[in-house]
Amino acid sequence: MTKSQKRTFALTMTVVCLLLGFMTTVQISTLSVKKSKGSASDYLHLMTQISQQQKTNELLSQQISKAKAQVAQYQATGSNWKSKRQALLKDAKQVKAAAGLTSQSGAGITITLQSNPGLSNFSQDHPTFDPQFVLSYIVNLLYSQGANAISISGYNGNTQRLVTTSAIRDIVQTQNGGYNTVDVNYSPMIAPFTITAIGNTSRMKAILVAENVVQLLKTSYAESCVIDSSKHLTVPAYHGEMPGKYAKEVTGQ
């Protein structure tokens, strides 16, 4: 190979090397740019997914909070219904007791009214004795002092609980104009009569003393009145008809 040919070959190789170097540099730069662009895209995609997941988590958290609130509300509602039911049952029990539909026991007094042959004004037929007036008078005195429950008993063992609809009526008149039989709750009873009252013993006895009941019965009706107190008395429940049992609702015209 001549010098001229060697020089041409060297120049050609130099140019080829330069071209290869340039192309390699361009390829590397292109790959770097592509890699850079690919990383940014992946990053944005990942951030989008994270953002969506955060929104989903927030939505689920809201739903969980709402569900917890509903559960708490249901529990509170159930508790309220239970407490309301207990309150209603308690009220019903108190109403039944106040209406006289349950027996009551406790401290109280008994008042026994009986004719007294030993009195100078005694008469076998009790010409002036009016049990309807006397019994009603004493019962009202006891109620005025807070008696919780009152019953009246007769000689025949009949005992009647007094309620708001109770009535005491004379039904059998003697030859001299007096009475010895009364009707209580539509049930007849014969003297002697015993009134049993549950309540404040001191207050009930005090009103009887203040009204001079014992002396009044002795002088006016020849009746003895014995008042006893006890810590353990029982007044039975009322078993008669209740108001409105036979009433029917009127609908329309």
Keywords:
Alpha-Beta Plaits, 253 residues, five-stranded antiparallel beta sheet, rod-shaped, 22% strand, alpha+beta, three-stranded antiparallel beta sheet, 51% helix
Structure commentary:
It contains four helices and eight strands, in the order H-E-H-E-E-E-E-E-E-H-H-E. By secondary structure, the chain is an alpha+beta fold. Among the domains are: 30 residues; 132 residues, Alpha-Beta Plaits, CATH 3.30.70. The chain has a five-stranded antiparallel beta sheet with strand order 3-2-7-1-8, covered by helices on one side. The chain has a three-stranded antiparallel beta sheet with strand order 4-5-6, covered by helices on one side.
Which structural class should the secondary elements be placed in? Answer: alpha+beta
Kindly report the CATH topology of the domain at 104-235: Alpha-Beta Plaits
Report the CATH superfamily of the domain at 104-235: Protein of unknown function DUF881
Q: What's the CATH C level of the domain at 104-235?
A: Alpha Beta
Shape: rod-shaped
Following the backbone from N to C, one meets helices and strands in this order, namely HEHEEEEEEHHE
- Please tell me the overall pLDDT: 76
Backbone CA Rg: 52 Å
Give the proportion of residues in helices.
40-55%
DSSP strand (E) fraction? 15-25%
> How many β-strand stretches?
8
Strand line-up in the sheet with most strands: 3-2-7-1-8
Biggest beta sheet summary: 5 strands, antiparallel
Poorly predicted parts: 26-36
Give the N-to-C terminal Cα separation. Answer: 139 Å
CATH architecture of the domain at 104-235: 2-Layer Sandwich
> How many H/I helical runs?
4
